[in-house]
Structure formats: C-alpha cells, structure tokens
Design a protein that fits this description.
This protein has 26 helices and six strands. The chain has a four-stranded antiparallel β-sheet. A two-stranded antiparallel ribbon has the order 5-6. Helix 4 crosses helix 12 and helix 23 packs antiparallel against helix 24. The protein starts with 18 loop residues before the first helix and ends with a strand.
Length: 509
C-alpha cells in the first residue's frame, strides 16, 4: 500500500502558469540610453508614457514629415528644404548634439529630446504599417529626415555613430586598389590620385547604393560597387532605408494583435488618415483678426481670401440663393472660424436665402446656425461652444458630395475639367500652375495643389515678407485648414496696415 503525501497538490488542482503569461507576469522595464543624436530605431521603446504623450509626440513628428514631403513635392533644393524645416524641427522635434550640453548625452534635456524622437518614430511606425503604400511613403520621408540630420550632425559624433553600427562593409585591400586604380579614377567623378591612394574604399553589393550607381559615381564590377569613404553617407542612408523597410514589414505582421486595444487603435487610425493631409484644429486666437471688419455685409469682399472650397460654396450660394445641408454646415463653421458672430451669421444666411420667407427660414434653417455656434443643443454642445470649423482632412475624408451638393474639396471631388474651369473663374490662369495642380490631383496630393495655388496668388506678398524678415518658415508652412488659408491670405494683403503677423503658437495640430 502506497503512502499518500498530504502536502502534495493534486495534478488537476495544481496552479500551472502558462509560459506565455509567466514571461510577462512581472515585466521589468528600463529606460534606454541615447548616446548619439542619430538613431537607426532598431530597439523598440519599453518605458511607460501617457496617452497624451503618445498622441502629441506622434502628431509633432507627423507635422515634420508632412512638411518634408511637401518640400519634396515642390522640388525645393536641399538648401531650401533645410532653411524651411530647421525652425519647425526646433519647435516640434528638437534634437541637439552632445556638445550642446555640458553633461553630454547624460543631460536630462537631451534625454527627453531623444526619447520623444525615439517614441514618436515607433508610434508612427505602428500607424503607417497597415498598407504597402503607407509603408513606402513613411520609409521615404523618414529617410529624408535622417539624411537632413546626418548632414547637419557634428562630424565627430556622426563618425562615432557610424562606427557603432558595425556595418558589414568589406574594406578594399591595398593590392586590389592598386590593380583597379585606373578604373577607379575613370569611374569616380572628381576623384584625385592623392585621394585614391590615401582615402579608404569599401566594397558593397551594388543594390545597397542605388543612388551612387544611378548617378554613375562608383565603379561596379562583378556585382560589387567600389565606394570611396567620402560617399559614406549614401551607404549609411541605404542601410537605414533597408533596415526600416524590414522593420515596417515585421510591424505590419504584428498589427492584428492591437485590434483589441480600444485605447491605441483609434489614435493610430486617426494618424494614418492624417498622413494624406495632417489634421488641424483651431485655437481661440486663430479666429481673431484684430481690426478686420468681419460682418455679414463684408463677406463678399472678403471672399477673395477664401480657399477654393469656400469660394465655390460662396459662389454657388450667390448663384442659387441656397445650399444643401452639408454645404451650409461646412460654410457656417468656416464663417464662424474667421470671426463672424452668430447674429451676423444669421443675418448673412437670411439675406442669402432671398427666395424664401422669413417664416420658412426661421422654421427650417435658423436652428441649425444656432446649433453650430453652440447657442442651442445638449450640454456638451453648449459647453464646447458648438462645432469646430472643418479641417482639410475632415473635408477630404468625410461626407463626399452627391448630386446637387457643393461641399467638399474641389481638388478631390471635381473632375479635372471642372476644376480647371473653377480655377480660371477665380483668376488662376497661369498654365504652369494649372499643369502643376493637375499633376498634384492625379497623384492625390490635394493639399499640395491648394498650397500651390495659394503661393501663386500671393507670390509677390510672400516674397516681400521673406525679404523683410517679418515672416519665417513657421508662418509659411503647409496650409492644412481653410481658416488658416483665409487668415494667412488676409494678413499678407493687409499686414502692413494691421501690423500683424501670424504667431507660431496660434495653430495646434
């Protein structure tokens, strides 16, 4: 007879923890060190941050990426891009070198800057891994940002960063270099014999340096590209792009695990939608134009400063004395955003709807205007003072216009012929501008097309404020809100009389 051990737990009652649960039962996170300003973003972040930081850091980085993409679309030179992006980087995504602080990379300010850069990259990597198109665009623009930072980094810190990456680059031997010296001199533009003999050479697969091969700046032999040390940046950029593409592919496979997280999924979806046009909301100060005569009777002369979407609504209203629901809502909120009071707005709509009686207007339309301003409705509506003016992203993605409707974005919702006719009606007849708009629309760069028209209409005023230094790059960044378009146009035309320049903190992305 076997002796039973009373202390033994029955097998069925044994508390066996799954190895998966045990692995994460007591997670131990540690803050990462950031010894270099530059990063290949190979190790995901592990420390905790708040949801507010999660969203705001991603939005700040998205704004920089959108500006970089806009510079690329406008064919700006490298120097013009650096001049435009640098003040925006200092405001939204600063990243200083170790020599800027007495404690080096141990400085708390530098740690916070690099932590934000690290986390914001991986947050956007999550947001933009869902489709191949988003992955391709994200990798291209992140590569542009890395290139800009690589070029402006401190030389010693940059070299230390590259040496720490441990690239698998084959060094060309002295004997091989002597044997190929004539070919290297002929295939490498601007190479001097002294540089050939004293400078270092690397041998890599030609696919890793397509930029150098395309511009015929290196010798290619037996599938290998012979790259001088001075072209190190091209190899680093190629390696950065290759690793980022692999990381994005791995991230896309892990995305289904996030579907059940109702905290992060809405934020990530919002960010991915905004990659086509960054979203924007208006602060209270954005609606103010000191000294501007914004009343019901001044809307007609002010309409020359309206973006094309609002100009189309205004012209349709004047032609038909009526707009359908979404057109009225889009236009009412825009007028509210430029500073038109609710009382003046009611007067404006009543005068515009001249084919109906007062009784019909009061019964069918008056309440909607008051509701948009927050004068009536639920407590949440009144506390929030009504609805915010629609951003470009909202106009592009929500409630596409149907038959007989005039709302939406003409650059997206109009045919090419109708768009060209509308632009010509508003005074845009330059063939190069119309051709550029057509190309932008075909490539679905709708906000770039709108900015192209703005820059052509205001080219003289923009040149003036740039020359006198009264406006910087931050005041002339890409427009992503109809009300920003109006205010910037109005200030450019009337700034001298008003003495007003757009403040950098008046827009909140």
């Amino acid at each position: 007879m076997m002796r039973q051990n009373d202390d033994r737990i029955e097998a069925k009652r044994r508390n066996v923890i799954s190895y998966k649960k045990k692995q994460f039962a007591e997670p131990s996170y540690k803050n990462q060190e950031y010894p270099h300003r530059l990063s290949f973003y190979e190790v995901p972040p592990t420390a905790e941050i708040t949801l507010e930081q999660f969203e705001q850091w991603a939005i700040d980085r998205l704004r920089i990426l959108a500006e970089l993409e806009a510079c690329s679309f406008r064919n700006k030179t490298s120097a013009e891009t650096v001049a435009h992006i640098t003040p925006l980087l200092q405001k939204y995504l600063p990243l200083y070198s170790n020599t800027s602080a007495s404690l080096g990379f141990q400085d708390e300010k530098l740690k916070l800057e690099r932590q934000k850069d690290h986390y914001s990259h991986f947050i956007l990597r999550l947001a933009f891994s869902s489709t191949e198109d988003l992955r391709r665009r994200f990798a291209r623009i992140e590569g542009s940002l890395f290139r800009l930072r690589f070029q402006t980094d401190d030389a010693r810190e940059r070299q230390a960063f590259v040496e720490g990456l441990d690239f698998n680059w084959e060094v060309v031997s002295e004997e091989e270099r002597r044997d190929l010296s004539a070919h290297l001199l002929n295939a490498t533009p601007g190479l001097r014999r002294q540089e050939l003999e004293e400078g270092g050479w690397f041998k890599v697969d030609w696919e890793t340096v397509p930029e150098l091969v395309e511009s015929r700046r290196v010798l290619v032999k037996k599938g290998k590209a012979y790259v001088p040390a001075r072209e190190q940046m091209s190899m680093v950029l190629a390696e950065f792009g290759a690793r980022l593409e692999r990381g994005l592919e791995l991230t896309s496979r892990a995305l289904p695990r996030l579907d059940e997280d109702d905290r992060l999924t809405p934020i990530l979806n919002h960010l991915s939608k905004n990659f086509s046009t960054p979203d924007s909301t208006l602060s209270d100060s954005e609606t103010a134009l000191p000294g501007a005569p914004i009343t019901s009777s001044s809307i007609d002369p002010l309409s020359q400063h309206f973006p094309l979407c609002m100009r189309n609504l205004h012209m349709t209203l004047r032609k038909n004395s009526h707009l359908k629901h979404f057109g009225r809502l889009q236009y009412t909120l825009f007028l509210k955003g430029i500073g038109l009071t609710m009382e003046d707005c009611l007067v404006f709509w009543r005068q515009s709807f001249r084919l109906i009686t007062d009784d019909t207007f009061n019964k069918e339309y008056r309440y909607n205007v008051r509701h948009a301003y927050g004068d009536v409705g639920g407590d949440a509506i009144r506390r929030g003072r009504g609805y915010s003016p629609f951003s470009c992203q909202k106009i592009l993605t929500e409630h596409p216009p149907g038959s007989g409707e005039s709302h939406g974005c003409p650059y997206r919702h109009f045919s090419t012929d109708n768009l060209t006719t509308l632009l010509q009606t508003t005074g845009v007849r330059d063939r190069d501008v119309l051709r550029g708009v057509k190309e932008d629309v075909e490539k679905k760069r709708f906000h770039i097309a709108c900015n192209r028209v703005f820059e052509w209409v205001h080219k003289g005023d923009i040149k003036r404020v740039k020359e006198d230094g009264s406006w910087g790059a931050a005041e002339l960044d890409v427009i992503v809100h109809p009300n920003t378009y109006f205010k910037r146009s109005y200030l450019l035309k009337n700034g001298a009389q008003m003495g007003g320049v757009m403040k950098e903190d008046e827009m909140e992305i």
